[in-house]
Design goal:
Elements lengths: L1 E7 L8 E7 L6 E10 L2 H7 L16 E8 L11 E4 L2 E3 L5 H4 L11 E2 L19 E5 L4 E2 L6 H4 L5 H11 L7 E5 L3 H12 L3 E6 L5 H6 L4 E4 L3 H5 L5 E6 L7 H5 L2 E9 L11 H5 L4 E4 L5 H14 L5 E5 L3 H9 L6 E5 L4
Parallel strand pairs: 10-11, 10-13, 11-12, 13-14, 14-15, 16-17
Antiparallel strand pairs: 1-2, 3-4, 3-8, 3-17, 4-5, 5-9, 6-7
The structure holds zinc ion (2 copies).
């Protein structure tokens, strides 16, 4: 065991503050990583503040982790000290269920283990995430990171990147497809970059006129203000797929009507209340209303390699660890273009 500096929420209503955690010594298949950067995901804030009513305190958030390997267990073949490495939202799963066997560990029937606020399978306690100096993870859940891209801008790919890449790949988006990205935030800006890189004609749907310039800069062909009824009506039946990144309540029926026959509305945001869907909207065009969660380990590696090849990273604002509480407040106001990333040298 080794002591590691971290930042933790001690309870739902207190700000995050310095705290010392213990990391296990590497077991035969473990990789020990010195964390260099950790992205700040909206899930971090939800969990730190117990908004999903399942937080175990103290809580050390962070699941967009990029760093350098400092030690490996005796049986580790894929990594050696000095390698760059990444850890995303998962650190373990059952490895035996059909989903795990198909490389879809995020849908593990027996419950995958989250990088933070997860229960270790060996009963050793609760997992602590990337707002810390180091982490020890089984090699099967560690990813290779290219040295071609700026590391701080790669970190958000581990959650925001894979969350948007996976549905675009699953529904085979490419040339000739019209894709709409609903909401231009941490997830949405990655969705635009990735869908454009796959050859789709991308439209950003937003409530905020100030986002138009960014949408175009990110590669979107079109921008439509959803409150502009005259413009939106023209989009009825227009899209093959809508990537819905909004995690606040909104009218799904309106967006379903923008899909062509067999079109797909895929939710990657998690609104707190149940959705009201008119079945008629589904029946009338054989439309699909569905969701998608992060990605498995194989697909996450594929996404990282794809981004290295196509020079795709997140737009980031690097912050010091001590500024995390202020960053949360700014996230709540939508005041970030488009992801905060913590420089762990400041911890
Ligand atoms: Zn996340
Ligand atoms: Zn499983």
């Amino acid at each position: 065991m080794s002591s590691t500096k971290s930042y933790a929420a001690q309870e739902a209503t207190t700000p995050l503050a310095p705290w010392t955690i213990k990391r296990r010594s590497p077991k035969p298949h473990d990789v020990e990583i010195q964390i260099l950067y950790c992205g700040v995901c909206h899930s971090d804030l939800h969990t730190a503040r117990n908004e999903w009513r399942n937080t175990v305190y103290p809580c050390v958030p962070g699941h967009e982790i990029v760093g350098r390997v400092t030690a490996v267990g005796d049986h580790v073949k894929k990594f050696k000290a000095g390698d760059l490495a990444g850890v995303g939202c998962l650190v373990d799963s059952c490895r035996e269920c059909d989903n795990c066997k198909e490389g879809l560990e995020q849908y593990c029937t027996n419950g995958a283990v989250g990088t933070y606020n997860g229960k270790e399978k060996d009963g050793s306690g609760i997992t602590y995430g990337g707002y810390s100096k180091s982490i020890v993870v089984h090699e099967d859940f560690v990813l290779h990171i290219s040295d071609k891209l700026p590391l701080e801008a790669v970190a958000p790919l581990l959650c925001a990147g894979i969350t948007t890449y996976s549905p675009l790949r699953h529904w085979k988006i490419g040339k000739g497809h019209k894709v709409a990205v609903l909401g231009l935030g941490g997830l949405g800006h990655m969705g635009v970059k990735l869908a454009v890189s796959m050859g789709a004609e991308v439209t950003v749907l937003s409530h905020n006129t100030a986002k138009e310039e960014d949408a175009k800069r990110l590669g979107a062909a079109h921008f439509t203000l959803v409150s502009d009824i005259k413009q939106v009506i023209k989009l009825k039946g227009a899209f093959d797929l809508i990537l819905d990144t909004v995690s606040a309540e909104h009218d799904y029926n309106f967006y379903l009507s923008l899909l062509r026959r067999d079109g797909i509305l895929v939710c990657v945001g998690l609104p707190p209340t149940p959705a009201q869907v008119q079945v008629g909207k589904l029946v009338s065009g054989r439309r699909n209303f569905t969701g998608s969660s992060i990605g498995g380990l194989t697909e996450t590696q594929e996404m990282l390699d794809y981004c290295a090849e196509h020079n795709i990273v997140s737009d980031v604002e690097v912050i010091a660890m001590k500024d995390i509480n202020e960053a949360y407040e700014r996230m709540l106001k939508g005041d970030v273009r488009y992801r905060f990333v913590i420089d762990m040298a400041t911890l």
